[in-house]
Specification:
Elements lengths: L4 E5 L12 H13 L5 E7 L4 H13 L4 E6 L4 H20 L2 H4 L9 H13 L4 E5 L15 E6 L3 H9 L5 H19 L3 E4 L2 H9 L5 E4 L20 E5 L5 H21 L4 E5 L4 H10 L3 E5 L4 H4 L4 E2 L9
Parallel strand pairs: 1-2, 1-4, 2-3, 4-5, 5-6, 6-7, 8-9, 8-11, 9-10
Helix pairs in contact: 6-7
């Protein structure tokens, strides 16, 4: 039996409390599934102590009342602030010169020393048996944990697969070299774990084919839609639906690809086709797409996904990514 369980949420993103997109649902539902079988100790990283951080922690505590939540607030020295500024300028430079996708190839940099020390202290203090972390940018955390603790990584998206698909048709040798280094690092760090969970059987097999020799399982993490989401659609259906927020880059790339390569051709065959996009998108992107293409509607967040999907055909034009 597991006597204690630790999740490291080391990022500047929101904690998994806003269950309006798949990543947060998968993380939260996974925690909920084991909450009665393990003692949960959740530590999370915040750049600074602000009101919004405490509000997130309060919501998480309400939803997981049996968990002990231990936030870490970063205390930046002047040297740390200079390093953080350098990192920010590097990211801006990469994005201006290339594409935001390239920045994902730097996901394996170690986390801050103070946060890593806190994790190790918690392992000792609470006699923690298993350290779990999720998302590729957090994989390096497990390399800093004591050797005697079991290390579990939940792999939402295979980084090297995403990089490979992104690089198709691109000739920059520096990017391809960087992708090879990132892939070798990803496989090596996964083999340092005691177990890896993926979100699909396909990803599980891909990891084994690429040389991951540790225990790999397909995860129980799910994205829930209440009731039976499969529905009969008539042959005369002219409504298409895309679900996904712009903040996840493959969604933006996928929708752009679909509009550029498919939408006008469909409208030429039948001008009654309509496309609805569900999820959070910026005003700039909505204006851009609506100015270029006809019959598109952005619905934003919808309170009832099943109702919004009625009598429509869902499209999933994801050209990069996995999971």
């Amino acid at each position: 039996s597991v006597s204690a369980f630790l999740l490291n949420r080391s990022s500047d993103l929101d904690l998994p409390i806003r269950l309006s997109h798949g990543g947060n649902q998968a993380i939260f539902n996974g925690l909920l599934a084991v909450a009665n079988d393990a003692d949960l100790y959740i530590t999370c990283y915040f750049r600074r102590r602000v009101k919004s951080a405490q509000e997130q922690l309060n919501v998480l505590a309400e939803r997981l009342p049996t968990a002990q939540i231990i936030p870490y607030y970063d205390h930046l020295s002047n040297k740390d602030k200079i390093e953080r500024l350098y990192e920010l300028f590097r990211e801006i430079y990469l994005m201006s010169k290339t594409d935001i996708e390239v920045s994902h190839m730097f996901d394996f940099m170690p986390k801050r020393e103070g946060f890593l020390n806190v994790i190790n202290d918690l392992v000792d203090k609470y006699n923690i048996d298993i350290v779990q972390t999720e998302m590729l940018r957090n994989l390096s955390i497990l390399a800093s944990c004591p050797s005697e603790v079991k290390k579990l990584f939940v792999h939402h998206e295979l980084g090297y697969v995403r990089n490979s698909l992104f690089l198709e048709g691109r000739m920059e040798l520096s990017f391809r070299t960087l992708a090879k280094i990132a892939k070798a690092t990803e496989i090596g760090l996964l083999n340092e774990c005691d177990a890896v969970m993926t979100l699909s059987k396909i990803d599980t097999q891909k990891l084994k084919d690429e040389g991951v020799t540790t225990n790999v399982y397909s995860s129980f993490s799910v994205v829930e839609v209440k009731g039976n989401s499969a529905q009969e659609v008539s042959d005369e259906c002219h409504l298409l639906t895309f679900v996904g927020p712009e903040g996840h880059t493959p969604n933006y790339i996928g929708l752009s690809w679909f509009l550029d390569n498919c939408w006008n051709e469909l409208l030429l065959k039948d001008p009654n086709y309509k496309l609805q996009v569900i999820g959070s998108w910026t005003e700039a992107s909505k204006e851009k797409f609506c100015a270029q293409y006809n019959n598109i509607q952005f619905l934003g967040f919808v309170p009832d996904l099943r109702e919004a999907l009625k009598n429509s055909i869902m499209i999933v034009p994801i050209t990069i990514g996995s999971g």
